[in-house]
């Protein structure tokens, strides 16, 4: 057969198949959903979802709309969403619109980055945020203003009804 190989060729000592090269998402490919691989990935097309890999290269025509997490991240195209990586490199002409959590970061002149940048010893460990608690604010309900303020009929002027405001506290990360 055309695809049959020798018994041990392409296998490492543990018996698992070894990867020859990266998985490539071509320029004409659009993936809608999450993509997970234990190998390397080159994105020249579009992924609308989260990406997890060992190493990811976003080509000049490539785009990821979602979270990108890998040990090695190289962005030459567009990423709209957060990036988490041990070593992150954003090349000239790249467009990143999202937070970057990294151990090592390089951004070339001419790259567009918008979002917060934070160094972390373990950027691939996803920290769960504590739930935001809502603190109710007390308010007084007053009927809408239907009469003039200058009326001297003994009643207080009517004011618009106020709505309750909900404040959210944000726990420090």
> Oligomerization state of this entry?
single chain
Morphology: elongated
Q: How much helix, percentage-wise, in residues? A: under 10%
Give the amount of beta strand, in percent. 35-45%
Low-pLDDT stretches are 1-10, 128-135, 137-147
What structural class do you assign from the helix and strand content?
Answer: mainly beta
Order of helices and strands: EEEEEEEEEEEEEEEE
In short:
This protein is mostly beta strands and 173 residues long. It has strands spanning 23-25, 30-32, 35-36, 40-43, 46-48, 51-58, 63-65, 68-75, 78-80, 83-90, 95-97, 100-107, 112-114, 117-119, 133-136, 166-169. The protein has a domain at 23-119.
Mind sketching the topology for me?
Layout: E1 23-25, E2 30-32, E3 35-36, E4 40-43, E5 46-48, E6 51-58, E7 63-65, E8 68-75, E9 78-80, E10 83-90, E11 95-97, E12 100-107, E13 112-114, E14 117-119, E15 133-136, E16 166-169
Parallel strand pairs: 1-4, 2-5, 3-6, 4-6, 5-7, 6-8, 7-9, 8-10, 9-11, 10-12, 11-13, 12-14
Antiparallel strand pairs: 15-16
């Amino acid at each position: 057969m055309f695809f049959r190989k020798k018994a041990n060729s392409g296998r490492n000592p543990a018996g698992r198949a070894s990867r020859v090269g990266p998985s490539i998402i071509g320029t004409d490919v659009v993936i809608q959903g999450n993509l997970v691989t234990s190998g390397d990935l080159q994105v020249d097309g579009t992924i609308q979802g989260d990406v997890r890999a060992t190493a990811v290269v976003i080509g000049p025509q490539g785009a990821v709309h979602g979270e990108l997490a890998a040990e090695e991240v190289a962005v030459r195209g567009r990423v709209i969403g957060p990036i988490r990586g041990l070593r992150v490199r954003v090349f000239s002409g790249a467009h990143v619109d999202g937070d970057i959590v990294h151990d090592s970061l390089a951004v070339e002149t001419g790259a567009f980055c918008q979002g917060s940048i934070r160094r972390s010893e373990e950027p691939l460990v996803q920290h769960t945020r504590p739930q935001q608690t809502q603190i109710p604010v007390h308010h007084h309900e007053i009927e809408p203003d239907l009469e003039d303020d200058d009326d001297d009929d003994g009643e207080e002027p009517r004011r618009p009804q106020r709505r309750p405001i909900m404040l959210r506290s944000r726990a420090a990360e």
